[in-house]
Structure formats: C-alpha cells, structure tokens
Amino acid sequence: GFMLSMNYCPNIDLAFMSISHIMKDVNSGWLIRLMHMNGASFYFMIMYLHIARNLFYYSFKLNMVWNIGITIFLLSMMTAFMGYVLPWGQMSFWGAMVITNLMSAIPYIGQLLVEWVWGGFSINNSTLNRFFSLHFILPLIIMMLVMLHLIVLHFTGSTNPMGTNSNIYKIPFYPYFMIKDLLGFILIMTIFMFINFQYPYYFGDPDNFKMANSMI
Q: Does the record bear Transmembrane helix in its keywords (predicted)?
C-alpha cells in the first residue's frame, strides 16, 4: 500500500489514470497492485475462518479479546470499503454512492451525515481525498489493536475444542506450533500467488475497468 501511494493520485480526474500508470509503467507495479488487491480478499477469508473457529470454540466468552477482535473486523471492513473506492472505476463510484447513502436512513440527521462524509452535496474530489487519507490511517490503528488483541489473549489464554483449562496441558511453541503455522502460511501463500498470476481479477468486477461516470 505504501509503495502504491507513491504513484497514486487521489483526484477524481487523475485517480483512474494513475492506477493505469501503476499497472503499465511502474516497475512491477502490476504485481504490487494485484497483491494489494487480492491480499485484501484473502485477509477477509482468513478473518472469517478465524471468527468461525472462535464461535465454534465459544471464544466469545473471553469478552475483552472478543470485543477487540470485533472492533478490528469492523475497522477492516471500513478500510476495505474506502480502498475499493480509490481506483475510481464505475463500481468504485456506485459502491461509494450506495454505502454512504445508507446513513441517510438515520432519522433527522441522516442526510447531514451523508453530506458531511461526502464533503459536499455529491461524491466529489473531497470524498476521494478523505477516503484515501482514512484508508492510509486506519490500518495503523488496526495494527495497534492487533497488538492489544494478542496482549490480552496472552493473559486470558485461548479456548480449545474440549472447553477445558488449557493451562494444564501445555506444549512448546517451537517446534510444534511453529511448524504447523509455517505449513499453513506456505499453503496460503501458494494459493495466493497462484490467484495473482493465473486469475488476478477473479475477485474483481469488469465495470471497474471503466472510469467513474455519474451519468452512466
């Protein structure tokens, strides 16, 4: 993301062309962008598996760990949504229009909130600029929350399929869990790189290859 930001231009007239520039002109820009784009999809797949595992093991009983985790999940969705708007294609524009307009359903202040988020009376340059800024800042907040998540988990301990106290039966992290995690990491990275090289736009939408146009 940091490397992409060096060549991206958060302007409604230039954003779409700057993405094209990254893909065609920047050295390995196509790979960096595809890894960033598909990496977000894989991030959520792994997060959903993590949530499913914790629901199955009743981990929500560890209130503090669970609440921090849900906060990370919600902030991740916000970050991903704002990132989806940045390429400024047709799906980016109309996705932003639909999602931001959901706030208009809030009684009395809904429309004011929508216009406050937009920075005007419609989605415009201010909207794209603030989405770019938040897309850059929110991951830093998420990183701090992940660290807090792990610190709290260290004190409470994790749950297990038997529902017993895991402090009684402990095994060393190395080599048991390290090898297990390394195997999982290699498997996921293999699938991830296969998607990037063979089916790079599998999780994308064809309409996002067209520049945003509010009249279409």
A: yes
Domain ranges of the chain: 1-91+125-160, 170-205
Residue of 53, 20, 42, 17 whose CA lies nearest to 202: 42
Cβ neighbours of residue 123 under 8 Å, at least 6 residues apart? 93, 96, 97, 100, 214
pTM greater than the 0.85 cutoff: yes
pLDDT tens digits, one per residue of 127-179: 999 999 999 999 999 999 999 999 999 888 887 777 777 667 777 878 888 99
d(CA 143, CA 107): 34
Contact (CB, 8 A) for 67 and 152:
no
